[in-house]
Each structure stands twice: as structure tokens, then as C-alpha cells.
Records
---
Amino acid sequence: MKLLLKNATLWDAAKGWRQNDLLLADEVIAAEGTLDAAQADTALDLTGCTLLPGFVDAHVHIALDDGPFLEDAPLGWAKNGVAAVRDCAMLSALPVADFIAWQRGHGDRRWPLVVNTGKYIDVPGGYGSELPPGHQIGLLGQTPEEMVAAVDALWAEGCTKLKIALDDSPNPFNPTLREHNLSPELIRAIVRRAHDHGMRVTAHVLEAKHLRTLVDCGIDDAGHTPTDFVPDDLLREMVEKDIPMVTTAVGPVQDNTPGLKPKRPGPPPPPPEVAGEMAKKKAAATAHAVDNLRRFHALGGRMLLGTDLMFSNNYDTCACIPVLEMEALREAGIPVEGILTAGTRDPADAVGLGDRLGTLEVGKLACVVAVKGVLSGGFSPLLRPDLVVNRGEILTKKL
Ligand SMILES: [Zn+2]
């Protein structure tokens, strides 16, 4: 099918803002310019609309427990304008091979592209080892040789990325953990082997001191933004080494419609006597993360929008473009174009899809999102786009 999108205000990180027509032919972007409607089977007039590349969420979780894998989140992302996601570790004891086989069986054009990190590689008792207590979800080892074997195993299963963790803070899922962490020697062994395979390593990290260690050991991106102060010299070093930072400052959108029940129960809510204190801590953590991102961006750092979406009461509406992250960055004074780059080109590059996604360049996949208006009032229209085309298939059309 040839679809002509006429008179849109286009933006991408390659060419910035401009007024043009875009021709989508089958699965790819075929042409941009002043184009003749006779070239297309269908033409849509997008006068007054903003047209962007499909988004990439650099941090999500699809496999949440040992039950059947749920299609809800992937279906939500695709129809809401997220063209690709990086699954940042299965939170499940099921085999990686089953997870990837399930994706291959379902991954038609109603799905985003999914990039897999497989399972956490960790030491017994580490952040990514168990969930809940006693239930192993990670690939565990204690020697450099065991780490190399774990990397090789994930590579053989078809994972192109890896996930590790450094964390000794309390975790809502399992407060008994955090006694053990990967040593720098083990992290270096993992990173070296991953790079031999051309795999990139992301890391769960919430504290500046751990980020320091991970950067020293050669990780490729930080899977979160730390929630304490990250000194400028470390941010500058990340810019120099081109190590991007995934935002996860605010987290995923949730649906507050009364009566919605999650298909998968998340961690229990905190008891009322500590809920207020926890909310205060969360607000302080978010403020630190946003400030780190603001300074990182000002120094030239690459941000990757990521939500850490896992448990949700409605994937139909919550698996979406990371508008909460985007609004937090906008309020911090980061320019609109910098935020859009963090949701499109930079995460596409970081997850290894830069040749297929992230900009509107001819030859890339026909993944586009359009909304009415020019986003001058904020990013909220992107929550429910007016037009979504995923690899040439129209999934949402309200125009
Ligand atoms: Zn996560």
C-alpha cells in the first residue's frame, strides 16, 4: 500500500522542523517533498498536524512472572505510537528461549519491534537474582568464567543486549536482597565478552557511586538516571565516552479510571503509616533524577526516554509514548527538540535499530505518529495520537 501524508509539519532529529509531504510505500518511507497524490493509493491531508517518527522506549519489562506471556503491552505500544521497545530483563523464571519464541510467533505489525536483554546476569543475592525471595529470575554466577558462560548463553538465545545491576538500596519487591553485588572484576568480564559478541550492556543503577563503578567498567548505557546527585565530572565523562542515560525519572503512565484491575498484581502498596514518607522520598528522587538529566543534557549527553513499564492496570492506555518523562524534562527547561530526540533517534541508535527507526529518512521503516496542532501546549496530545502507522500499517486513525 502507498500512503501519502500531505502538508504535515514534520520533525525528526536528522532535519528538524519543516513542512512537507511524506510517502509511505509498503513497510518503508519512500519519499519526502512536494509529492503528487497520483503516486499513492491513499492520501491523507495533515494540514495543521505534527508528524514525528515512531517512538522507542528504552526500558520496559514484558515478562512479569511465570504465567503465560501477555500480549497487552506490545499491542498497546504499537497502536499508541511506540515503534520499538527494549525489554530490560525478564522478571520471570521461564526460559529466555520461550520468551523469544513467543515474540516471534506474535510479532506482526500490530506489535512494536522488541529488543531483548534476556535475563539479569548477577551474583546470587544480587538485585537481579530473585523475585520474589527464593524465586530465581537471573543467570547467576560467581566467577569471571561463569559470567562469560552466561553472556554466551544469552547470545546463543538471540539476545542482542545485556542487563546487569548494581544496587544496595531497599527494593519494593524484595527488601531482603542487596547484600551482594557484582564486583568490578565480574562486570569487566561481562562487558568484555558482550562486546566480543557486539552486544551492548545496560545497567540498573540508581546511585551515583554505582554509576561511577559501571562507567569505569565500560557499560554502554545507564538503564536509569540516578536518584541522588551525579557530579558534573562523571556526567562529562559519560558525554566523552558517549554513554547515554535512560530517563525513568517519573515512570510509566497509569490509568486512574475507577474499577480497573491489573491483569498481573504488582508489589503490595505500602502500609498507610509509611505511604506519606515514601511519597516524599519518591518526589525527592524524581527531583534529583530530573536535575541530573538537565545537567547531562546541557553538557551534551544523550538521554533515552524510558518508562520501566511493567505492572499496569490498563496496557491499552498505559503502554504509550513516554509523555510523563517528556513533561518532566520540559519543565526542567530542556528544549522540545532535545526531548523528542531522546524519544526517537537516540534510543533507536542505542538499542541497535538506528538504521531502521528513529528518523523520517527515506528507506527507514514506515513508523510515524501524528497529532493535531504543534505541541506548543506540551506533549499530552502524544498520549493518544491521532494517526499511528506501524511498519506501513495504519493502527490508529482519528483524522
Ligand atoms: Zn526495569
Note: The chain has two domains: 1-53+359-399, 55-357.
---
Amino acid sequence: MSKPKSEIVRKGYSKIAKAYHKQRDKYNNNLLLTKISKRFPKGSTILDLGSGTGVPIAKFLVNKGYDIIGIDFAENMIKLARKNVPRAKFIKMDITKMKFKPNSFDGAVSFYAIIHIPREKHACVYKKLHRILRPNSHMFLNASGYDVNGWEGYGKDYLGVPMFWSYYGPKKTSRLIVNAGFEIIWSKVLKLGGDKQFWVLAKKND
Ligand SMILES: C[S@@+](CC[C@H](N)C(=O)[O-])C[C@H]1O[C@@H](n2cnc3c(N)ncnc32)[C@H](O)[C@@H]1O
């Protein structure tokens, strides 16, 4: 694979946007979203990192009355998201290069996206997130649930395109999140369709 890892992910998701959207319903996250969204103040602004087609995450949160800003670097995922959830705002942006003012958001979510970011960049992403969240706000995300020190690899046929994944196991992910300044409120390895994921609810304290 000679293409940069992030280009494999970006181009891949842009190509499969429609197919991804079609099969996304299999992974119903509504139970978790209902539980977690109670942590976000009513009517507040939430950042969705790797927002995909906007369904089900941004759509669920918009319907609960939150202002959602989704970021994703795959052009066609963004296009579909704008169509699927017109009440949210979607920006084409690379998570690893995101630039928002400090204390911009009341909460953040990221579902099935961190696992596509080269793992040596994860610490930096958590630090950026800490900076742009307001004090006392929560983030809820998943990383890999597999108990590995570090793994990355390619798949040749993910819905018909090549794909790249990269991750640490739950212990190291927890350490990175705490080192970024968060307090972990709740975490658990769950298999909600697909692979085992490590779900983390963390708080930026005062
Ligand atoms: C498995 S999909 C998940 C989409 C959505 N969160 C969901 O739950 O359906 C991963 C998404 O993350 C996006 N993504 C991966 N790496 C990214 C990066 N570095 N910057 C922005 N988006 C990224 C992909 O383009 C893709 O839309």
C-alpha cells in the first residue's frame, strides 16, 4: 500500500458512502445514546467526530434538541449527512487537524472513527478534544475493545474498497484519555454488532 493511510480511509469512505449508510442500521446505538445524551446540557452544542452519514448519531441528537456540528473528511459522507440531517451542520475536516477555539463545545461524541486514525495520533486527538470542550463537559466515544498493545492493518475488501484500521487496547486508550486531562466516568468493552469496541464516557473537569 503506497497511499498514505489517511487517504485510504478518506477515499474509501467517500466511495462507499451510500453502501455504508444502507448497512449502518445493523448497529443500533440508541440505548447508549439515550443514556449518554443525558450528560449533555439541554440545547447545547455537541461535536460529532467522524460523523459519517449523520445517521444514526447526529440525527438522534438533533431530535433530542442538541445543536450538532459533525466533522468528517470523506466528501460523500458529508454530502449524505447534510441531506440526511439538514438541521445539523457538517464540516469537511480531518479530525487530526481540527481547529476550533478552546472551550467551543458542551460535549463530543465519536462512534467507530478513532479506530481509523493512525494510533500514534490518538494522544494528540484526545488532547485537542480536551482543549475544545468546555469545563464540566463530557465526551463519549469508542476505540478498539481488543486487548492489544497496539495494532494496525489493512483490509482489501471493506464494502468493496481497501480500508485501514489502527488502534490500542482499552488499557492504553484509557491512559491516553486520562493523560489528556479527562476523568473517565464509565467505560466498558461491548460487542454491539461488528467488532468489540471500548466505550468511554469521560469528563473534562474544572
Ligand atoms: C465507520 S464510519 C463511522 C461513521 C459514524 N460515526 C457512524 O457511527 O456511522 C468512520 C467515519 O470516520 C471518518 N473518518 C475516519 N478518519 C477520519 C479523520 N481522520 N478525519 C475525519 N473523519 C475521519 C470516515 O470518513 C467515516 O465517515
Note: The chain has one domain: 5-204.
---
Amino acid sequence: MTTSNSNRPTAAQSCHSMDPDLLASCVHCGFCLEVCPTYKLTGDENNSPRGRLRLWREEADGRIPQDPWTDHYTSECVGCLACESACPANVPYGQIFEQVKHQHVAQKRSRPPISLRFAAGLARHQSLFNLAMLPARLLRKAGILPHRFLFKGEPAAFQSTQAYVSHLMQVHRPTGPRVALLTGCLMESLFREINFATVRVLIENNIQVIVPPDQGCCGAFQEHTGMDGVDQLQEQNRIAFGKLDVDAIVSNSSGCGLALGKTMKGAVPVRDVLGYLGEQKLVTRTRMDQAARVYVDLPCHLVHGQKAAGIPANVLDATGYQWELAPQARDCCGSGGVYNIQKPENAQQILARKSAFLNEAVGTPVILATSNHVCMMQWNSARSTGLVKRPYEVRHVIQLLDPLGS
Ligand code: SF4
Ligand code: SF4
């Protein structure tokens, strides 16, 4: 999926400005239907990639008027991009979907909830976002998890990842390749223990880490909601990352990595940190507890967005755990960026199908591991809402490699 600023319509433009070649590229074969979570949920053709594309094209060609049903079926899409992987005609569904969402918000056909609009505004100012999330960080640190999406963890309340990197680099002085870390807005403000673990793993493997101080939100938040502001965030990150002398920019969130990859357009390679580590000679952890079992789930934005084959097996082996791919590992968990906030009932139904195996999973403890904090939040909700009755832990794979990890 590629999107450039020039592809994003302004508020003044309508559906009729959509590139007709993009919408016409669907050959109606239907290969995408069986991978689409909303089609599998409803059996409704309009709730499939092919159906949505047809509705958008009919409207763009003026054969149907703007219609609440088109708005409804657009809002139902999770944005998982599984249809892109399945499509033999290479329809750039993600690019089209982004344009349509942006148009619908611009035309006031859809309106993100106020909580998301507020959060998107905060995400433009990382220091404000960090401050606003301080109470949530303190609650997590105290083991109090007042929301279904909050998983266990102990984020530093005040020390930033940038300060932590400076300290560890001075202590350990790695001499290997040099990478820049995308710290992310939500990751840094709420789940920064994952950033800290990422830094420890990189440095333990002799990789030099820098954290560009002027980086900002990757813009995925705005893209998911169709809101304005992506262009400014992209420009900020192009300036922050564009002139660095590094081998790669690494991201520990597949959604953020995908968004930053589109921003950088190859000027500096943007890599998923686990894929990058898979190319290094890795320190391997030793586990005394052989009863534990790790079930690995693959984020949509990693396998369908970034088109990665998965999480490298040598990285998973280096965790020292017995591991296997979770059933339906390449299918969407229902998170979809902010889909589980905008469409909670659908998201829970999608998750219910996917998480059912955990009730019968073998292992003590059972660990569900993935590589996107937003997916971790969704997986945690299977526990907190009672979809899964037995205990299990939700972890980022990088935490399983962490020298300070359990
Ligand atoms: S992005 Fe996912 S939910 Fe949306 S149409 Fe494609 S497969 Fe279906
Ligand atoms: S697989 Fe591609 S070409 Fe076929 S119906 Fe789906 S979007 Fe259209």
C-alpha cells in the first residue's frame, strides 16, 4: 500500500475526484471475500472488499447518490488489508480506503468520536500526550488496569526512552550497526516499557541506538480515522529522520512502521525491529521453565501492510520458549487501529472467533505474543471481557528477548 500526499484529497474534493483507474482495477474475482473479517462475520457482499469497491465506484461514476448505506459499509471495514494480500489484480485497497475515509470525514458523512478527535489532537504534541497519559502510566505501574485494553506492564513514569537510550549507550557502548528508533506516540506515552525492552535487546546485540528528539506521531492515528493532519506529521518525521546516518529506522509497532515507511518513501529504510533482529546474530535466552508455551499472532499491518513473511523463526527461537503460530495467525484480531473503539461489537465478534483456542491452549503459563501494541490491547480485552476464561499473558515478542524480562 502506498499513499502520497498528492493522493490525499483535500476537504474541498469529493468522491468524484478519486482516480477512476484505482476503482476500476478490481476485476470482481471474489478471491478477497473469504479473507475479509466483516464478510465472514455477516455474509453480506456489501461488507466485503469487492462490495465496498463497487459501492465507491458506483458513487464516483454518478450511478448512485451519496447514500447512508455506503457510509455504513465503509465504516464497517477494519482496514486489516487482508484483501490486498489475497488480490490477484493488486488492487491498492488500502490506498483507496484511506482516500474514501478522508473524503467521508471531510464531507461530514462520518465523524470520529470526540475521544478520538481529542487523542489525535494530543498525538500531534508528544510532550502533551506524555503528560496526559501520566495517570494511566502510574496506574499500570501500580498494577491497576481500569480499562479492558490495558495490559500488565511497568512503564517508567517519568524517564523517557530517549533518556534511557542515552544512559544505556554510555554504559554499554555497542559498536555494531546503528539504528534510529521510532518511539511512537501511544507506545511512548502509555506502553514505554516495550520501548525500553526494545532498546535493551538492540544494545545487548551490539546495535547502536539513537532516538531522534524531534520525531512525532507516525500519522497512523489520523489515517485510521480519516482526520486531517497527516501531512504535517509526515513532514515533521521526514525532517527528524531524513538526514540521519543510520542503517535503518526500526519500529516495534507494525502499524507505526507501515505509516513511517510510507512517509520516508525509501529515503531511509524503515524496518520492523523483529525483522531487523532476524538478520543479526542474536543472543539466545535460556528458559528453565519448559512448561510455558508461546502462541504467536501476526499483526495485519506486518503481514498485509508491510508484506513481511512473518516474525523470523530465529528471533522466536532466541526467546528460548517453545512457540508455535496461533491458529489463524494471519487473520485480523479486530483491533484495526481504532476499529475496536469505533466498532466495538464487531471487533469483539472477530476476536471471539480468533481467541477461542486460548481456552484450550496447552502450557503454563500460556503467552500470547505479537508485535503491535494495539493488537496487544485487543488481545487483552479477550481476557478482561471474559471471552477467554483461562489465564494467559499478553506480551510483545521483543519482551520475550529482553535480558531483564522474565
Ligand atoms: S481491509 Fe480487511 S475488513 Fe476491509 S475490506 Fe479488506 S479484508 Fe475486509
Ligand atoms: S480479489 Fe481483488 S480483483 Fe478480486 S474482487 Fe477482490 S479486490 Fe477485486
Note: The longest strand covers residues 178-182.
---
Amino acid sequence: MATDPQAPPREFDFPVSSPFAEGLGQSFLDEVPEVEEVDIGEGADPVAEFRRTLGMFPTGVTIITTQAEGQVHGMTANAFMSVSLRPPLVLISVDRRAKMNSLLHEGSRYGISVLGDEQEALSDHFAGRVLDDPPEARFLLVRETPLVDGAVAHIVARVVRSYWGGDHSLFLGQVEFARSRPGAPLLFHGGRYEHVLADAPVFGALAPERLERLLASGEERSYADGERIVAAGELGEELYVVLEGAVRVERGGALLASFAQGDLFGEVAVLDGRPRSADVVADGETRCLSVSRDAIREAIAAEPQVAWELLGVLAGRLRDA
Ligand SMILES: Cc1cc2nc3c(=O)[nH]c(=O)nc-3n(C[C@H](O)[C@H](O)[C@H](O)COP(=O)(O)O)c2cc1C
């Protein structure tokens, strides 16, 4: 018998409302296992240790948003996961004591905004932390659902199922809208924020006049739209500065980042000489300055203070790691 690949399978075809708890899906509470102590080893506080163990799983940080009676509500959450591509489904886990838990129900929509590297203050703010200088959140409205402006990814999902999840509720959402932009996401690991190191500047962190001297012997090159400037896998022999136009950083055809006039790229590969991790392609007519490794080495030999500053930048990156 022919089946429609888009149609949910029969086991999905339950009524969403539950006889057990309002707003929750098929939650067979009598099938929930007895609570058992977690085996976490000797002498530790079980809850703290369990939390610490779970915290070793690194995640991004999202703001879950919804609109109820004209009011926007946002909540920081890292318990977000992708579930299915066809149909497009995502899942969030919300503390039953959180206000958000009382606002979400079958048929309601929630927004997911995946925070960018520089949006840590918004994460604290929507986690209810009191800040001296609270950030001002700006929202975009898509399908009557607020989304946090400036995030690296936006999703709007409609709750199709909710499940009992102990002291949390799980809300399975059918995705109606999804957009992303290049950029580094904010990370969370071991109970604290982390940052993607690959995007942190190295030479770009030097004082402008020092950087200018370091780049002085660079060669200008022009590229046509779509022309490859560096290829993934080739050894990093040169550092580049975008002089005019823009470039796209791509891996396997997916856009990872884009750089515009004044931006540097190839900063790490030129130092360690290892193979480049991505392609860089001209986005329109583009002019770049290319500075060879040897030229950089000579410039540093002539001005050893630069080496000391670079060590400072690299030490800062290690500290952040
Ligand atoms: C990085 C981070 C991740 C969090 N993840 C979750 C989560 O996945 N689910 C949850 O219920 N609370 C999570 N929280 C806690 C909520 O953000 C916090 O309890 C918030 O105050 C709840 O807001 P509400 O009661 O106004 O809805 C997280 C907090 C932080 C800082």
C-alpha cells in the first residue's frame, strides 16, 4: 500500500490532549519507572554530581520565546535539540516551575533564537539573573512569534505534542520557519559560557600601527566573483586582508562566515602552517592583500615586541578555552 512520506505514522496519530495533566501529551504516568538513586560514585552530593555530569555535554544557548495575551515572554534554554528533518521537528525541555511551562500548550507556537557569541548578557537576562546593566532585547515578530534580533539562527515551531519529563516538560514542535546567518554561536559547557575559538582574532587583535607594519610587504591581488582565494586542505602559507569587496568562508558548500573590507582571514593557518579547514571564495569583485609567512616572520624579527604581543593574544585564547 502506498504511503504518503509526509504523513505522520500511525503511532503519531494520538490525540494530543492528555487525560492526566492539562497541556501535556500522552503521558502514561502509571508507566513512569520508580525513582531510583543515580549511581554517581562515592561520597558526592548526588544532585550536584548528576548536574555536573550532564554539564559536560557542550551545547549552544537559545532563548525560547512566546507571545501570550500580547506579552512577549523569553527564557534562556540549552535543552534544545533537532529531532527530524521530514517532518521538521524540534524539541525543548522546560522546567515545570518556569513561567514558560504554563504558556506553552498544544497548538501554541514557540520561537528559538540561537544566541551569537556576543549575546551572553541576553542569556543571563532571560535566565532571570539580575545584571547591573541589563541588555535591551529587540524582537522580530514572525508568525506572531517573537524572535531575538541578532541571533545566529531563528526557528518558529508549533507545539504538536508535549510529554512528561520528570520535573521538566518536553515540547515537540513542528517547524514552520527557519533562518540562519553566518557567525559564531555562544556555547555553554561545564556550567559556564564558552566561545568558539576559531573566530577569535589573532593578528587582528594587534594595535593598528603594528599590524600595518606587519602587513607592509603584502601583495595586492584581485579576484572575480566566485573565484576561490584559498582551498580547504592546502597549507596555510599566507595571511589575507580584505581590501575591497567581501569573501565567503565555505565548507562542503555550507556558508560558515563572511568577511568584509578590513577583515583578516587565514590568521591561524599562517602561524601553524597546517592545512586550511575551509574554502574562501570572493563574493563579488574583490581585492585582497596577501602576506606570506616568510614576510611575517621577517617583520616579527625586525620588531620582536610584536611576538610578545602575539603571545599575549594567544595566551588570552588559551585562557578562554
Ligand atoms: C545557559 C542556561 C541554560 C538554561 N537552560 C534551561 C533549559 O533548557 N530549560 C529550562 O527550563 N531552564 C533553563 N535554564 C533556566 C531558565 O532560563 C530560568 O529558570 C528562567 O528564569 C526561567 O524563566 P521563566 O520562569 O520566566 O520562564 C537555563 C539557564 C541558563 C543560564
Note: DSSP finds seven helices and 20 strands in the chain.
